[in-house]
Amino acid sequence: MRVLLTLRDGLLDAARISDECAFAKRNVNDTLTSLVTSRVVKARWSGNERHFTAYQDKWAALLEVGPSGKEMPSFVSWVHLFPAALEIIAWLDDEAEAKDSDYLVSSRARSLMQCVTRDLEIAGIDVSPKRPAPGTAYLPVFAEAVASVLAMMHAGQLVHVADGVTSTVTAG
């Protein structure tokens, strides 16, 4: 339901929903079929595939988030954002103790970002450099990417950063 209520891409197929939920497509499809049968969500056929959507206005009223579905929280692809953020945090923790040159750190940062780019892009974060950044010039680009990850997590109301201290708050 989280995906159907917050993702504003219109009708969604079971494959997209299962990817965002990290469940098997068959299980998601069975659940969605049950929800359609009980008239909790709507479904339409497009070719040989079923596409689903929720009654957002009714759900907004039920969840008391506002009079319409436009008041629902924005979608955040947590299933893609968390693993990438965890890898970045672990890497930063390891690098904090390293005493290597900026060039080596920059090279490892570039390798890290190549590993997590797919998940970050699916989560809606563009980490491609806006300009060429050879050698140590990549470190500011990496810092911008990390700031984008933190901003996305903050927008999803998962973390709050104040005075250099990160604290967990209730996700929206």
Instruction: Kindly report how far apart the N and C termini lie.
Output: 14 Å
Strand order of the largest sheet: 1-3-2
Low-confidence stretches at least 5 residues in length (pLDDT < 50)? Answer: 157-172
What is the count of structural domains?
2
Structural class: alpha+beta
Say how many strands there are.
Answer: 5
Question: How many strands, which pairing sense, and closed or not: the largest β-sheet?
Answer: 3 strands, antiparallel
Mean of pLDDT: 86
Helical percentage: 40-55%
Shape verdict = elongated
- Kindly estimate the percentage of residues that lie in beta strands according to DSSP: 5-15%
Number of discrete helical segments? 7
- Evaluate the radius of gyration: 20 Å
Order of helices and strands: HEHHEEHHHHEE
Offer a few descriptive terms.
elongated, 7 helices, two-stranded antiparallel ribbon, Arc Repressor Mutant, subunit A, 172 residues, 53% helix, 2 domains, 3-stranded antiparallel β-sheet, alpha+beta
Q: What would your notes on this structure say?
A:
By secondary structure, this protein is α+β, with helices and mostly antiparallel strands. The chain folds into 2 domains: 2-71, Winged helix-like DNA-binding domain superfamily/Winged helix DNA-binding domain (Arc Repressor Mutant, subunit A, Orthogonal Bundle), CATH 1.10.10.10; 78-168, no CATH class. The chain contains 7 helices and 5 strands. The strands form 2 sheets. It has a 3-stranded antiparallel sheet with strand order 1-3-2. A hairpin with a 2-residue loop joins strand 4 and strand 5. The longest helix is centred in the middle third of the chain and has 21 residues, at 102-122. It is elongated, with a radius of gyration of 20 Å.
